[in-house]
Amino acid sequence: MPKVALLSLKGEKVKDIKLNDEIFGIEPNNQVMYDAVVRKGASLRQGTHAVKDRSEVSGGGIKPWRQKGTGRARQGSIRAPHWYHGGVVFGPTTERNYEKKQNRKESRLALRSALSYKLSNKAITVVEKFDVKDSKTKGFIKLLNTLKLEGKTLVVVKELTDELILASRNLKDIKVIESHEINTYDVLNYKNIVITEEAVKMLEEVL
Which of 20, 31, 52, 204 to pair with 196, CA 20 to 30 A apart? Predict the structure, then answer.
């Protein structure tokens, strides 16, 4: 079983704890992690893009000129796709569904792979708790500096508090989530992962 140091909020080592080998010590599966990230990205697409086809653009109710005798090519409507301001052919519509599927077994394997990958790169920090006394962003930054964390950081706690939400919401490179919200995309997207001891226990129970 992999061992990590359990830190206090002062950055001091409290003790060594053992992590579940089946969650934090497996050989990462790159394919399922890739599929999970693609699935997450696809789910974020709004799908609100749309264009007008020839039945939706304005104008074009009659033939622009008679069928024969003009010397020009026959035309049926000035809103045909090859005309200026004509309808668009095969353009994007709101009917397209970007959703991708991944079964639960693969999804959990992807998350375990991501956690194992981060731990092997020493990017996971386990703390006793992650509480802030007030809702000041300055205090939150000071706490991260005490833990020697720089760059994009994902904080995983068992339960969010109002003070924690208010203190972190103005920091663009910081995301605070509850343990049941953790996903492969966020784990791989953030440079540092901070997990409380209670959140680790909950993850080990679920995964």
Answer: 31
